[in-house]
Amino acid sequence: MTDQTKSSKVLHRLLLHRPETVTSASGSYYTLSTGQRILDGCTGAAVAVIGHGDPDVKAAVVEQMSQVAYAHTLAFTTNSAEELAGTLLDGNPHGLCRAYFVGSGSEAMDAAMKLARQYWVEAGQPQRRRFVARRQAYHGSTIGSMSVGSHVARQKPYKDALLLDNVSYVSPTYAYRFQKQGEPEEAYAQRLVDELDAEFRAVGPETVMAFIAEPVGGATVGCITPPRGYFEGVRRVCDKYDILLILDEVMCGSGRTGTYFAFAQEGDVRPDLVTLGKGLGGGYTPIAGVLAHQRVIDVLAAGSGAFVHGHTYQAHPVCCAAALAVQKVLRRDDLVARCAEKGKWLEQELRTRFEPRRYVGDIRGRGLFWALEFVKDKETKEPLAPDLHFASEMRDQAHRLGLAIYPGAGAADGHAGDHVILAPPLNVSQEDLEILVDLLEKAYDVVESRVS
Description:
With 452 residues, the chain is α/β, with parallel strands linked by helices. The protein contains 15 helices and 16 strands. A seven-stranded mixed beta sheet has the order 4-10-9-8-7-5-6, with helices on both faces. Helix 10 links the parallel strand 7 (208-213) and strand 8. Helix 3 packs antiparallel against helix 12 (317-332) and helix 4 packs parallel to helix 12. The longest helix has 22 residues, at 430-451. The mean pLDDT is 96.
């Protein structure tokens, strides 16, 4: 352990390594204490949707603090919370009508799970105690949210001691590895929907509270997208057995994939509960939320008239004010539509430059949310050996060159499989987008030469 690491009292993610210090951030760039500038090509974990240092958000936070910095939600509400909910749910999009604001995506998923359970208790079906989720998914790091996810490495220390045992899993929408050769997209979607139907029947559909899924995959696999017709099929199967549908848009939502809700590109889906985070507050304050469908609210309103859950800092007025300012910037500058357009350029550039490369197996994503999966053999799709740490090496090399990217490991089976995620700000300039791809290619060249 170095002297610098010993001097830190912060429990960093790695005990033997102290991260570099960021001293300022503006637009699409960080500046480190060393003076190095880093292009934020992943916005942390797809968080900073409007970049860093936005003056409107700063002004909104200062104004809110000058008015009311904190009010406990058991007794009070604030204008910032009310206006944020009203902005997100104007016109009750997709039937969503109420918002519950918390401090993180993990908390949002826990709240959604509790809402689902309370819904069924108050609907007179307390025997519904099970969740069905998908393999190779990430839903958070609290006990509840980790239980319905399937990030093998993060679950390992807690699996037999703390995690819930009322969760079963079906296949992810991971076409690169699980769509059969020659299988049409619609047939692949139907096969996945049939698998879900079979799982409901196997565990007893009358025992299932909800099915949980990411419309576009996040950290565990990286930007996997559903085949055409999949989520409409999922909705039909959930309706068939009267099962709630919870969609996790903490990472892929808030405009990141080119529509405000990622599921909006999937046809008639009508989720019962949707979790938002990351891009909701853009990193300016910790905030996430659950959006509830009228169906869920009606049952609670006709029963107890309350949601049996609460946090000291839920709907925190300063956090809501910052998130509201971020949403106003998104709308004012038409950033969601611009994200969709920039995403087309980014996709084409990534495919042109990286598809021919020796270790690039798959390129996937939507909007400004893209991943490259690396493999040892492009024909067999055999993953690289985990001890090569290919994705981590990509991150380190990119960092040295002045680019931040988001690495992941275990994509293929929970142990092997490397990928990196690109998720720049939605208002990234074309010049910086071009720099991002240039630096990524340079980083890849170094890592490929070392592995070869």
